[in-house]
Specification:
The structure holds 2 protein chains of 2 kinds. Chain A is mostly helical. Chain A is about 55% helix and about 5% strand. Chain B folds into 2 domains: about 5-210, P-loop containing nucleotide triphosphate hydrolases (Rossmann fold); about 220-300, no CATH class. Classes of the chains: A mainly alpha, B alpha/beta.
């Protein structure tokens, strides 16, 4: 699978976190599928021009968050979707994202109905290419 | 720690006349890592490098490299070290090819493939005159000359100085290429914190002749916290908390930078009774500037341990 993107070291987001977020986005959009192998640490590090330990750390994070799994001696693979976070943690994380969205929206003078409409539109768009038709209900194990 | 240490510096102090350049520096660089050596100009980085490479004597303390005392390095040991000094000096009357032949004659091992592939990377051809090269090309040539003997330890003194972004990227790629072999170690000084963040495992910060940090890049970033407190009235001044590096007041805000804050630090902030407390993420560059900017008396990131 291809994970070519550009990291920005001058960001306030650490590089390993940028890699994690990139994989998360690719998964949410359906660009990578469960069972796909992530590139070898060394080769992704050289493609992104970052320290291999940074990539290894990103992979550990993905594994810790249940998004990927390591098969010893072979490599790291995207997991079947399952939830490793407790309901409280899920709610907390969602809340963080929502807070950010709201702050942004208020500064840009959007009303709640407008946000709602925009949210629904984007949600549908992301579902179009994201959902595997054979497995539409991704919440269940 | 010392057993696997490629560079081991103990209590290193250096005076030039009455001027102290390096003060009681302890540093241990493990094998296989990429170490970024940071510090503002004139803080003793080059002097430290020259001492552990045996090119200058320490006033006090000791240094060893590849397990051998730096003051009495044998030529065979020196041959295992690749050193790229500041400024990228070459003999201008030689061609690129001749530079290679000249350098190769001093080393028992010489990998011509590496030499040529680095040249290609920097778009150099053997027939070019060294004197007519651009700064970036000269850096490429020097890097090729330094890498071709396949040194175990690579010491680069401000290698990116004056390079354009493309040449800098090539430099970083070359560094990652070298450490494909797990036993290769790179120690490099730089002012380009984004480059350091990309490739370094650990950083050492030399400031005012004292080593003020020695830790991973992430530990350095995470250990420095920046908060903005908002007040309805004029903010109080920040108490002299341990670890406080900077505080800055405006009409309704108090901005605070703190190193390794205690677990209850946010409670202390709340004790000032602000309307809101907002933690602000810092880039490595922000963290560095905040750290070496003002107060020079404190040292917080020594091998991950909190200093006194």
């Amino acid at each position: 699978m291809s994970l070519i993107f550009s990291v920005s070291p001058a960001s306030d987001i650490p590089i390993y976190r940028q890699i994690v977020q990139h994989v998360q986005r690719a998964m949410a959009r359906g660009h990578v599928k469960p069972g796909e192998q992530l590139p070898a640490v060394r080769s992704l590090a050289e493609d992104l021009v970052v320290n291999p330990n940074t990539v290894a750390r990103a992979y550990q994070e993905l594994i810790r968050e249940g998004l990927a799994e390591s098969r010893s001696g072979i490599g790291v693979f995207i997991s079947e979707r399952r939830q490793v976070f407790s309901r409280e943690e899920q709610v907390r994380r969602l809340g963080q994202g929502i807070d950010q969205l709201i702050h942004e929206a208020i500064l840009l003078d959007f009303s709640l109905p407008e946000i709602r409409a925009a949210l629904e539109k984007r949600w549908k768009e992301s579902q179009l290419d994201a959902v595997d038709p054979e497995n539409p209900d991704r919440r269940k194990k | 720690m010392s057993e696997s240490a490629v560079i081991d510096i103990k209590g290193l102090t250096k005076y030039y006349g009455h001027r102290q350049i390096v003060h009681d520096v302890n540093l241990s660089v493990p094998r296989g890592c990429i170490y970024g050596f940071l510090g503002r100009n004139g803080m003793g980085k080059t002097t430290t490098i020259r001492i552990f490479l045996g090119m200058e004597e320490a006033t006090r303390g000791s240094a060893s490299v590849l397990g051998e005392d730096s003051a009495t390095l044998r030529p065979e040991t020196r041959a295992r070290i690749g050193y790229l000094p500041e400024g990228h000096h070459v003999y201008g009357w030689m061609t690129v090819k001749e530079c290679g032949q000249f350098q190769a004659s001093y080393f028992s091992s010489w990998n011509q493939d590496i030499f040529e592939s680095v040249l290609t990377h920097f778009r150099l051809t053997p027939g070019m005159k060294a004197g007519g090269l651009s700064r970036g090309q000269r850096a490429g040539l020097c890097l090729a000359l330094t890498l071709a003997p396949e040194p175990e330890l690579l010491v680069l003194d401000d290698p990116a100085l004056g390079l354009d972004p493309v040449a800098r990227r090539s430099l970083l790629q070359s560094m990652l290429y070298v450490t494909r072999q797990a036993d290769r170690t790179i120690f490099f000084s730089s002012h380009l914190l984004s480059d350091v963040e990309r490739v370094a495992d650990r950083i050492a910060v030399l400031d005012g002749s004292v080593l003020r940090a020695d830790c991973t890049v992430d530990a350095f970033r995470q250990g420095l916290r920046h908060y903005v407190l908002k007040f309805r009235e004029t903010p109080p001044s920040a108490p002299n908390w341990p670890g406080l590096l900077q505080s800055f007041r405006t009409d309704h805000e108090l901005a605070i930078t703190v190193a390794n804050p205690a677990a209850d630090f946010e409670t202390r902030l709340a004790g000032l009774q602000p309307e809101s407390i907002e933690p602000v993420e810092m880039t490595l560059e922000d963290a560095f500037i905040n750290y070496v900017g003002e107060r020079g008396e404190k040292t917080f990131f020594m091998n991950g341990k909190e200093a006194k």
